[in-house]
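ARCHIVE CARD
SHELF: 3
SLOT: left
DATA:
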Amino acid sequence: MKSIYLFLMLMAIVTVSYSQDDITLCHTPAVEKFALMASNKQFNSEHQMPRVYTHVSEEGGKMITFDCADGKKANAYLIMSDKKTNNWIFVFQEWWGLNDNIKGWSEDLYKELGNVNVIALDMYDGKLATDRENAGKYMQSFNQQRGDAIIKGALKYVGRDAKVGTVGWCFGGGLSLQAALLAGKQTQACVMFYGMPEDNVDRLKKLNSDVLNIWPTQDQWINKEVMDKFEANMKAAGKELTIYSYDADHAFANPSNPIYDEEAYKDSRNKTIAYFRARLK
């Protein structure tokens, strides 16, 4: 009996020492799993510094706060439709935070769709990165429990009658899918731009909408292996997934990014607008 106990103890030690990162990833939610990539220097260096952009709202966009169930307040950038509508789009930031580029994207969506309210959630609680070091630090410190509280707080803010679409880029691409899962029956649409997918098939079975997934083939991180697995998981969950791939790199859809690909951006933007327009009527 003693020998068996010693053997089990030894195996536990060997397993932990073999790969602490593998164990961490195995039991880590999808978005936090992506956030862990910020500890990789190559991952950080391949994120080009965005050009300076200052957003001035033409549609009455403003910053607001709302309550969360964890007792904290959350921040968001809000654009309300001139006409009353229950259509809402939740917008999720890149790893930089809720910066002016995200506000600009939010306003573009609003202008194109018209019959929606748009709310861009601040998933960093006021922190904003203007360099890779802080972007990586903020993303690594992200906690999905707090993220869920922010999303649920936003759902309460928009009300139970809201029909919700979600969209995000990079770090926010994964959050877009997580928000679609949390919104349950209120979810009408979900768009992911090069974000980390959910790999729990049982969770994916709970999706109330299909998913539009935008993917650049030069992306080393959200790569073909990740995409193939996501496609297989969605099929196993019985959910519809539409994938559009572009010969571009990570963050190609950010006009303020030096690697911005205008042709790919315009096509993916048009597909995103058409997708939302068909589902948020």
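SLOT: right
DATA:
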Amino acid sequence: MKKKRNKKRISLIIIGLILAAIISLGIYAGCFIANKLNNINIEEIDTSNLSTNEELYEQVSDSITRKEFENIKTFALFGIDSQDSMIGRSDTIIIVSVNYNNKSVKMISIPRDTYVSVSGHGKTKINHAYAYGGASLALKTINENFGLDITEYVSIDFTGLIHIINKIGGIEMNITKDEMNYINEHSYECGYSITGRATKKVTSYGTVLLDGEQAITHSRNRTTGEGSDFARAEHQRDVLQKIMDKFTKMGTSKLLDMSDTILKEVKTNINVMDYVGKLTDVVLNSSTYFGNITSIQIPSTEYGKGQMINGGYYFVADSEKMKEEMIDYIYKK
């Protein structure tokens, strides 16, 4: 099986932290907000043809009230791998659900090889949808195959994450000897060749401080541990958690110091000013929100498996089960 590209899920959640910090300061500095938000690339899309599930509330009304339902905001995060042979393919797809009722965040990773129907293109991998029709077709594909009503997205091509990790002084990770060897073997191609910095070796295992190039290399590792793309997803979640730990301990000024670089990498159709109240709540209760982040993969290996179809690898799952699990996880658990 071909080596797969790095998923960008590590970097995407940082955007929310920075936007939240910017909005919270808006109470005192409206012009400052405007200048910061000008760095975001706004891309309007036609939301009238996204195949949103208009009956979604009725499907979950036995578990939550209408007000509680409306207090759960869900959007899609797309990590775009510009180094991929198929330019514009969404190498990472994460559904992020922010629950303002209990101040929690859920992150649902959709495997990029998931076999789904893409309007106008038949059955194929879900990550092809973005390349075929941008964010609009990607959102439509998610809604049609998972029974959701998502109309907002954030996309990012974020090789610059390496520089951000370096800027915050690296992150401490607990790695095995095999993982140390993998980092040392692949860190040039995965990181140092991008930044042009001198290659550094990890000289020990256990709890070690990794720089950005080494951390990104670790997040790509699918050959140690269970030796699968799911194992790599675990590595990525570990890296994400360490970044989150460091960001939540930073002061607002340090976050804003890095905001220009990060926000310039973002493309979105979200009108951030519509979320002033919500984001302010996130800032005021950041320890609660970011202490209640959970993640899951849907569809799971319990009802899905890899298959070769017409010479290509796909992750094939029961379509009704993956719809049910997605809706239950966001709205009923």
